[in-house]
Every structure is written in C-alpha cells, then in structure tokens.
C-alpha cells in the first residue's frame, strides 16, 4: 500500500513539475515575443545591454554569448516554475486526499 502511495506521490510531483516548468517557459517566451516592441526590445537586447554596462562588452543581441545567457535565464525560470508546480501539485493532492477520506 505504501509503495503504491509513494509511486503516486512521485508521479504527481513529476507531473506538477513538468506542467509548472512548461507554463513558466511558455509565459516568459510569449512575454518576450508579444511585448518586445512596446518595451523597447527583447530579452536578448536587454542581456546585451547589461553585458555592455557591467563588463564593457559590446555584443550584438544575436551573438552566441547572449544566446547562452538567454538559455541560462530560461533554464532558471523553468526550474523555479517546476518547483512551484511540484509544490502546488502536492497541495492539490493533499486537499483531494482529505476530500476522499
């Protein structure tokens, strides 16, 4: 019985983390795409500008360094979203377990 419950809990955590990470990535990429014109640039342009200010590196928004940092930022956002999704999935699972009993 406990093995089945731990397997179910593990599956719920994985599903919640996957959905949370996917929603986080989707939201951040859609915000980048939709608001690039109204906010005077995309994230890649902001990263290139930050590198210019912080390290005096004049990089174009299409350079490999900017893309690598952009991927690192997206990975960080996805991991935060995955953590929040897993936590939320556990809360929902516990609430539904209380309703079941």
Quick description:
This protein is an all-alpha fold and 101 residues long. It is built from three helices and no strands.
Written account of the structure:
The protein has 101 residues and is mostly helical. It has a domain at 7-42 and 71-100. Helix content is 82%, strand content 0%. It has three helices and no strands. The protein has helices at residues 2-34, 43-55, 64-100.
How are the SSEs ordered, and which strands pair?
Layout: H1 2-34, H2 43-55, H3 64-100
Helix pairs in contact: 1-3, 2-3
Please count the helical segments: 3
Termini separation comes to 16 Å
Poorly predicted runs? none
What sort of overall outline do the alpha carbons produce when their principal axes are compared?
Answer: elongated
What percentage of residues falls in helices of 4 or more residues?
A: over 70%
Strand content: under 5%
Instruction: Describe the main β-sheet briefly.
Output: none
Extended strand count: 0
Label the structural class: mainly alpha
Q: What Rg is obtained from the alpha carbons, in whole angstroms? A: 19 Å
H-E string = HHH
User: What value does the average pLDDT take?
Assistant: 90
């Amino acid at each position: 019985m406990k093995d089945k419950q731990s397997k179910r809990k593990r599956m719920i955590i994985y599903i919640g983390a996957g959905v949370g990470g996917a929603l986080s990535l989707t939201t951040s990429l859609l915000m980048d795409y939709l608001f690039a014109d109204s906010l005077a640039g995309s994230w890649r342009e902001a990263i290139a500008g930050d590198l210019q200010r912080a390290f005096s590196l004049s990089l174009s928004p299409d350079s490999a360094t900017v893309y690598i940092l952009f991927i690192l930022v997206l990975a960080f956002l996805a991991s935060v979203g995955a953590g929040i999704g897993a936590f939320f999935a556990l809360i929902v699972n516990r609430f539904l377990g209380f309703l079941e009993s």
